[in-house]
Amino acid sequence: MVRRFEKKSRKYRGSRTHGWGRVGQHRKSGSSGGRGRSGLHKHKWSLVMKYAEDSSGYPFFGKHGFKQPETIVAARLGINVGELDSMLDELVSKGLVQVVDGKYVVDLLKIGFNKLLGRGRVSRPMIVRAVWVSRKAEEKIRAAGGSVELVRGVVHG
């Protein structure tokens, strides 16, 4: 038997079609049996039987999961603790933050945020009310002598 050491592509140098003809090239959807998932119940059934779980057809057939409408999913508007710390004086002058017993009482929902994130430094003790708080943010506020209160049922979106 003859062994071919050269790659086949050498044979096709200068050829426009590489043996596929001039009209129905090999890259169109007809050669693959249709576009996307077409033919799964017909001529691609062997693929379904090979890769489906327990021959049920999953994940090829049926709807999977549920996607909530974006209108009812709350947007997570976050602010970092460092940013909040630098804004405190300005927020006190606007009346959005109160100072009680030397601690700044911050309601994030009044400022327009609902999630507290942990980037930055906390230099002053704060009592923060928020819907979502990251673990790092909570640690930093507690280390500065403050506390975190989670607000449930109230979400701005």
What does this structure look like?
The chain is of the alpha/beta class and 157 residues long. Helix content is 22%, strand content 17%. It has helices at 45-51, 81-94, 108-111, 135-143; strands at residues 78-80, 97-100, 103-107, 115-117, 126-130, 132-133, 147-150. The strands form 2 sheets. Strands 2-3-5-7 form a 4-stranded mixed beta sheet. A 3-stranded parallel beta sheet has the order 1-4-6. A hairpin with a 2-residue loop joins strand 2 (97-100) and strand 3. The model has no long low-confidence stretch (mean pLDDT 88).
The dominant shape is: elongated
Give the C-alpha Rg: 31 Å
Order of helices and strands: HEHEEHEEEHE
- Separation of the first and last Cα atoms: 73 Å
- By DSSP, the count of extended strands is 7
Helical segment count: 4
Helix/sheet category? alpha/beta
The average pLDDT value, as a whole number, equals 88
Features:
four-stranded mixed sheet; alpha/beta
What's a quick, concise take on this entry?
With 157 residues, the chain is an alpha/beta fold. It has four helices and seven strands. 22% of the residues lie in helices and 17% in strands.
